[in-house]
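Workshop exercise sheet. Pairs work together: one partner reads the sequence aloud, the other fills in the structure field after running the prediction. Swap roles for the next sheet.
Pair: D.N. / O.F.
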Amino acid sequence: TRYDNGIPIDVDIDPTGPPAAIVDSGVAFTHIYNLLDSAATHLTNVGDAPFPFQMSAGYAGFDRTLTFLTFNRALRARVSVYRSDYAAALTALSASFINSTVPINLGLGVYHTFSAAPGDSTNNLFDPQSRALVAYPTLETDAQLQIDGVTKDGRFVAKTTLLPTPHTSSGLSSDRALNVYHGPSDPVPIIRNEELILLRAEANIGLGNLAAAVTDINLIRQNPQANLPPYAGPVTAPALLAEVLYNKRYSLLFEGGHRWIDLRHYGLLGTLAVEVTGSGTRHRFIRFPFPTNECLVRTPPPATGCVPEPGF
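Structure field:
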């Protein structure tokens, strides 16, 4: 998410010493690839075995070495798509837990879990009073219609609720609350089957396999959760990519910033609305800023430096 800011990757250092050096994004992604691939090798070499430690309920079904390997390959596929390495993404997906057998379990996957138990934390994305977290109005206006031609996309209907009165903050107003998490212990997906199917469509578009992409797009569109008619637009790479990004927006809503990352990947951040309010014009950020403490003097100095974002 820090994009061309880079990240520190040398974590095996004295915690009381200077922070680790920052490497550029190319080095960072290579490091991530290597970590995932070396872990996959270790998991494969062990064979099927339980882990010698307890895992949270979010890893149910992925708590043995070879089932965990399918989770590893799912993450590898996501990272490969981020790097436009679409052939590698399809290879990783073929070894992941992707499953498109109807009826499709779109929720199959690995989750962050939360609880109110001592030493644990609760899900801070749960905002029952809609005091801070509401849906941007274009989520409603951009939603396609279900097969009845009247009702908005089923994912929009399920994941937002109409507020009794609009919520206004910093000059911006919304009459829709987010309804993705229903309690402080609700889990947040790390990666799940619905994303994998859309990643496969995205990778096939990148490779020119447009018919295969349409098949996967329709698996998501025609699933009861969306209840949309089959895709009927142009079978071209730009049109299908727009359709994949539409479905990722609604399928993965409030699950980890996927839309922002996807738009940045394809140079589409300029399509996001920029509001002008009494407090001034908002910015389209392209990277996460570094916390101040990570920008203090360090040895060796950062390779790319800490690039501040406007507004921070």
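Discussion prompt: The chain has a mean pLDDT of 90. What would you look at next?
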